[in-house]
Amino acid sequence: MIKLLRKMGLSSNMMYAAGVASIGISFTSWLTSLKVEHAGLDRADRWGIFVGEWAPTFFALGAALRLEEQWGEGGKEEEARRMGQPARETIPVS
User: Residues annotated as region Disordered (predicted)?
Assistant: First the structure.
């Protein structure tokens, strides 16, 4: 699944940004539900918690994508290319 997300063009930074945004949206939805709906605090809490549960998922996907970016297929070459250096192979010492 992580490889598929990378092929779709998603990066770890995008997932981290989505996690932070979902925290803000959680607070906004809680406040909006509390002020606009007049359904009470319980309903506002449910909306805030519902949206707030997305944040850990986005952060976990961000961490998995970060690992895939660093160590997945071609990860070393991609990192070296990004840094403007030729890719180097590590030789294990016996």
Answer: 72-94
